[in-house]
Amino acid sequence: MKKFDVIIIGGGHNGLVASSYLAKKGKKVLVIEKNEHVGGLAEYANSLNFISPIIKKELNINIHNIKDTDYIISLEDNQNHTILEDKNGKLSFVKTNADENDQKTFLSIINNYKLFSKTLGSFMYQKPPRVKSGKRSDLFQLMSMGWKIRKLGKKNMRELLRVIGLNIADDLEDNLNNDNLKGLLSHESVLGSNLGPRSPGSILTLLYKQAINDNIFNLKKIEVTNYINQLEDCCKKNTVEIIKSSEVRKIITKNNSVTGIQLNNNEVIESKCVMSNADPKTTYLNLLGAEILDTDFIRRIKNFRNKGNVAKLELVLENEINIKNIDKKMYGKFIYAPNIKYIEHAFNANKYNHYSKNPCLEFYVNDNTLSANIYYVPYLINASHQENEIIEKCVAVLSKFIPDMKIRKQELITPNQMEEKYNISGGHWHHGDLEIDQLLMMRPFYGSSQYSTPVNGLYLCSAGTHPGGGLTGINGLNAAKKIIEDSK
Amino acid sequence: MNTEKISYKKPLLETPFHKRTSEHCYANDWYRWAGYKVAKEYSSTELEYTSMRNTAGVIDITPMHKYEIKGKDAKKFINKLITKNITNIQSNQVAYGIWCNEDGMVIDDGTIFCLNENHYRIFCAERNLNWFCDTATGFNVTIEDISSSIAALAFQGPLSCKILNLLKVENIENLKPFHFDNYKLENQNVTISRTGFSGDLGYEIWCDPSQAIDVWDSLFKFNRDYKVLAAGMNSLEMVRIEAGFIQPNADFMSAEQALRPNRMRNPYELGLGWLVNLDKEYFTGKQALIRHKEKGPEKKLVGLDVEGDKPAMGSVLYDNSKKNIAKEIGIVTAAMWSPVLKSNIAIGFVNKEYYKLGSNVYAEIYHPEELDYRKIWAECKVVKKQFFNNPRRNAIPAFI
After folding, report:
1. What is the arrangement of strands in the sheet containing B106-116, beginning at the earlier edge strand?
2. ipTM surpasses cut 0.95
3. Is residue B154 pLDDT above 90, yes or no?
4. Is the predicted pLDDT of residue A226 greater than 50, yes or no?
């Protein structure tokens, strides 16, 4: 029987990054993927496409953004849309009904947020420090973060500490008059998170996303399949073995140390080190089994908030899509979140486990296909959504802007379906909410931070770890570094 | 089920024995226990204590929390919960165990009754349902709080077996310590276990709430010859100190309730290391307990034989006979003058250097005397916690 240095459960992009990196360092690595192809949730990602430059460099990935100039279109019922242009990260208004003052304030708010997230992002790409570890390096990291905040200067530091726990609605309403602009920024802060514009901490979520993706509107788009193929090639080049269409049933342990894994066909593969690219809840409760975990730890696993609330709708129309009142050259990221009240009302339904009757949308158009993220469509426990109704409501919103919609094909992926298809409990983009108590050294939860677990030889590298979801690949890279550091 | 409504006017529930306990309770002095009221003192604490040490005393322990564990994985679940290994437990056997959190700090202790391989009951002083349910994740068990569906009496004292025998409870004298069985007591079907909190011969009687009054009455049937008394919580406190039993939230803070992390205690500090089996494959807190054992306890709960006759309640312990240079090295958690042992005893924490048996420490006792305190500097000798341990406690057949 073959023996491996590291077994990676799940061939998602983080798993592939980690395996390439480990193999490059001379480890014998095996990746086990449940589906017929690797990549996992990456194929689903129509936003959050930013890839860390470190990974591009170290793994020789040659991938570029599809466009240099992007447009953000915030749709309005009265067809008076706002169009913003993003040229390599520089924002400007193309068209808007907001007055000049509002435009200026809007851009300065964004610049402020960018400044703050730069401060917070100082160790976004490193492994987060561990509180009370007693290690000097952790202490130093914490101190450097404190120093970066102090370095902002008195005024900015005060402003950062004011907004860090604030909800986005309060901050925008204090400064802006135009409803559409408020809705646009609120949309960006709540999408993919279990928050409404008036939920505390929604600004932090926005800052955090900016820090990871280096763009407040997540505009950079790449060809995801190309990226995954390159990663797979990179794995193969470094002699990583990949087994597809094979599911792991159990992680086997003895005396609190990993000894290997058992596949669904009862085959056992031995290894002293297993890295799980499955989300934390699946890893601990299904793969490892709660029986060998401390009760306090089980409580923290159970309390990890991982209910997704975004559904994805793929539409294929008979004809080419034309959006009313917008020049074709300016097609980009369309957002329908006209004002804060509308989003908050949509969020209300989510609180009671209903889908929003008046949903918010973010969509991309390509010829006759349309790919939309709909929220809020909550993950349901022991129940399922009336999918046709959700599509109906969504199409009703779209038909305000797209005349004569004739649908040839439609596909909806609710969080429940996402859970089933990609094996992510809760069907959450980021495997768990990006909120203050689930970030940095607290991600996914106390006792499981820094990619390690209470079980010797078991590591995590999924989006459930720091720094969260998206295609950055940092999770995989940091986790691989952690294994190499520990094996020294 | 107790369907009585709780209101602000009547904030405490009454146990199924309340009709009788309230008749006996001349002092009308009630103690609040898990939402119920139980008597602190019926007429005189000393008399009640004396009955438990010389004849028998009856204590209403209905408010005790009772949990039913059923299912295929029941034994596995309990083995994960508690620090001791109960793999070899047999039906009708009782095990005493403690459970700890992930830091190896004690949450509570309790008795585990094995009804059969897949059916157990756990009796404990604090609420634990939440902890049990979270611990049960991944096991095929159901956990139910059956606290209000069982009425319970502790029947403790040297004559307890004799009286049960007179009540024609068949073969009760052959019930082994830490065992239980079903018996007929005056036509009532009850469960009797040879367990208790007194360090002497004693039983605990478990019955349906509807039988409560009859069971209570029958225990007092032979009172012309054997003066059985209803005993309150104060007298129970006296016997448990003599027996060296510790109590959560009195001698140590339950880890689930302590607000200050340094107030939590591990089993080695409480002298309960014998209840920890580190060879067991897995239980909550194992990793931390391995570390605690290696390090050895910083302080330890010990018995103290105190000089003089004034109880050292809440006293601070010092290392030196000379007051002005003495350093604080511990604290007393429970203390009393023991009438049976004719000595002044206490239980308390002392630091590492002093927990060896025979060490000398000094207690500063503030003894109230008619609106004034007398300050006493008393020498104490570190002894075993178990001050009172009568051989009849474990004798088979029991004394009748």
Report:
1. B94-100, B106-116, B119-124, B65-70, B142-145
2. no
3. yes
4. yes
Closest CA to B132 of B208, B206, B67: B67
What DSSP line would sit under A289-305, residue for residue? IGGGS-HHHHHHHHHS-
Question: Within an 8 Å CB–CB cutoff, is residue B24 touching chain A?
Answer: no
Residue B182's SS3 state is strand
Tell me whether residue A10 is in a domain: yes
- List the structure tokens of A429: 């983009």
B8 inside domain = no
Residue A385 tokens read as 């959504």
Closest CB from A255, A295, A454 relative to B135: A295
Contact B81, B135 (CB under 8 A): yes
The domain in which residue B196 lies consists of: 13-62+150-231
**Looking at the predicted structure, is the pLDDT value of residue A178 above 70?**
yes
B135 interaction partners in chain A (CB closer than 8 Å): 295, 298
Mean pLDDT of all residues in B217-242: 95
Contacts of residue B281 in chain A, CB cutoff 8 Å? Answer: 255
List the CATH number of the domain containing A443. 3.50.50.60
Please indicate whether, in this complex, the C-beta atoms of A290 and B138 are within 8 angstroms of each other: yes
Instruction: Decide if B92 touches A, using CB distance below 8 A.
Output: no
What is the model's pTM? 0.92
- Out of A255, A256, A290, closest to residue B137 by CB: A290
Same domain, B370 and B304: yes
Inter-chain CB proximity B282 and A291 less than 8 Å:
yes
B370 found inside a domain = yes
| Chain B residues close to A294, C-beta within 8 Å | 101-102, 284-285, 287
- Judged by CB atoms closer than 8 Å, whether chains meet at B101 and A296 is answered as yes
Amino acid present at B356: K
Helix and strand counts by DSSP (H, E) for chain A? 15, 16
Nearest CA in chain A to B136: A291
Range of the domain at A32: 6-63+222-305+431-487
Contact A291 B139 (CB under 8 A): yes
Q: Could A294 and B284 be called an inter-chain contact, meaning their C-beta atoms sit closer than 8 Å?
A: yes
**A363 token code pair:** 């969509």
Query: Token pair 């193969």 is at which residue?
Result: A236
Mutate to test the interface with B, among A294, A302, A448 (most CBs of B within 10 A): A294
Question: Could you say which of A212, A240, A273 is where a domain stops?
Answer: A212
Using the beta-carbon criterion (under 8 Å), do B287 and A256 form an inter-chain contact?
yes
B216: CATH: 3.30.1360.120
Same domain, B132 and B155: no
Answer whether A302 sits within 8 Å of B137, measured CB to CB. Answer: yes
Do residue A159 and residue A205 come from a single domain?
yes
- Site from B129, B282, B289, B291 to mutate, A interface, most A CB atoms within 10 angstroms: B282
Reported confidence tier of residue B1, pLDDT bands at 50, 70, 90: very low
Q: Over the stretch B61-106, which tens digit does the pLDDT of each residue have?
A: 999 999 999 999 999 999 999 999 999 999 999 999 999 999 999 9
Q: Name the residue facing B80 among A255, A291, A299 (closest C-beta).
A: A291
Which residues partner with B253 through β-bridges? Answer: B264
Under a CB-based contact definition with an 8 Å cutoff, are residues B207 and B200 in contact?
A: no
Interatomic CA distance for residues A447 and A120, integer angstroms: 23
Give A218 or B94, the one with higher predicted confidence: B94
- Arithmetic mean of pLDDT over chain A: 92
